[in-house]
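Blinded run. Sample ID left blank on purpose so nobody reads anything into the name before looking at the predicted structure. Input follows.
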Amino acid sequence: MKCLLIVIVLLLLGCQSTVIYNTPKRNSNKKTITNNDPIRSTQKQTKNNEGYMIASWYGQKFHGRKTANGETYNMYDLTAAHRTLAFGTKLKLINENNNKSVIVRINDRGPVPLERDIDLSYKAAQTLGFADEGICKLKVIYLD
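Blinded prediction complete.
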């Protein structure tokens, strides 16, 4: 009976999954960004395929690991993680605070925090000028 109980416990422990997520450090004096706009990546897009997303980024901790589509994550590539967009989807992202823009390709799933819509590679966040802040509201133009 003890052996059966041990086997059951081990099987249940093997079914657990642990989510590891690297939340970028932010200054405590920075304001929390919320998306009060009706257009979110998980809702609807406008007629001209534009909208807004709350973005964060992930980097060193995941560099060299496999992404959800099987590629090796490179924090210096212009890629992004999204919960539902098809792999290979290209988005033009615009930081309206500084007018910087970048085109990224979806190759991973995420972000884990539900209040965020997209998780960018470190290079994409750096190009858009919000790597130090860790989170930013971006204008999104769907290219595909």
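Unblinding after everyone has recorded impressions. Helices lie at 2-14, 122-128.
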